[in-house]
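Quick one: structure tokens for this chain, please?
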Amino acid sequence: MDGAPSSSTAPHGGDHECRPKKPKGNHYEVFLSFRGQDTPKGFTDHLYTGLLNAGICVFRDNNELPVGEEFGQEILCSIIRSKISIPIISENYASSTWCLRKLAQMLKCKKSRGQLVLPIFYKVEPSKLRYLTGSFKAAIDEHKENLDESVVKEWEEALEEVSSLKGWESDKVNDGHEGELVTIVVRKVASELKRQFLLNIPQQLVGIDDCVEEVMSLIDAKFNDTRIIGIYGLGGIGKTTLAKVLYNKLSCHFQFLSFVANIRETSRHKGIKCLQEQLISDILRSSHHVSNVDEGIDVIKSRFTSDKVLILLDDIDDKNHLNALVGDGSWFEAGSIVIVTTRNKSILDETGVGCMYRLNGLSLNQSLILLSRHAFQEDSPQSDYYVLSCNVVSTTGGHPLALQVIGSFLRGKSKKVWKDTWKKLKKVPDKKVQETLRISYEALDHKRMGLKCYILCP
């Protein structure tokens, strides 16, 4: 909102000017800028309320600053602290020196910090900013009479730059219906914010790229149809990590995303209804309660048929859980992708999942790299430990979790400890990995996999 400090006192600048006397430390997700006399009680108010209702922390100039604060400087600092800036550019926007200062600051943050700027051209054509016609030309001409030429030049460049950014023209969205525009903007902001918090991926990844490429080949590159992709394999083999990498890679194509973790454990302690509520809340961007599983299914089926979603369901061990969360995939708009990880392939078979990917252990060379990273903080063993490292690796079956646990245990240990560990591993898996492996094997068909009980039991 305009009407803040006069042009002679307000700072214009970058990060070095953000030094309020009493730093508040507030970090906003969205900074909302508008011309006070044009839109505050109409469109801007509806957008502000819509963002708040979506659980988004938004800065609106006129109600965030305490009386008596050096609020001009504080506002510029709030732009710097925000992740997304939304300038609502109306007919009289350029007549306010303060609006222009804020716009210039947003674009500086875009260049220096990668901040996202999403302009809304409210009943204004972007070409008026680009070529400085009409009220925009009159406003800039007036500023030239009263202000330093370099300052006004910066504002002209800011107007031209923002006119070329991808945003929205209010009159062209649903024939000017502002409610639809508010909905679209809120969804876009929610999606972008979620994208900035990608799923955490371990740094010591080995052999993941080929797996990602193979799974991506199962996905329709044009997102024309819905795919449920099942990733299966032993516990600790890296299914969740692979699924997270895929989720992060695909997230830029979706506005509606949900990562439902640890389904096996959560369903045992809290029930599948709790997981349905999380999925619904993630997609709607607001908390949602369901009374029972059937109601949860009804909500998902009825609310998301027109939404293209990306969903990651991690560690499913019951076909009913898959049926209660995504059904056969027809509950969502065509182009949706559901990634499912499980230890039990039969769940995927029974629920008709068409795209399946079995994740196997690492090769010997990859195993040696992963062990070395945890044991030596390098990609290869120390020369005098090379044979011992190869011996240890040969006992793990390429199991990433085993390699990480064993490598971390052996870090800094003597050769005697390495030899003793190798001898024990030849007889029985390392105790820290044993329980994970036992759960995994118990979930599989032992006869079909050709496994014998003595592998697990000393």
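The longest helix spans residues 178-195.
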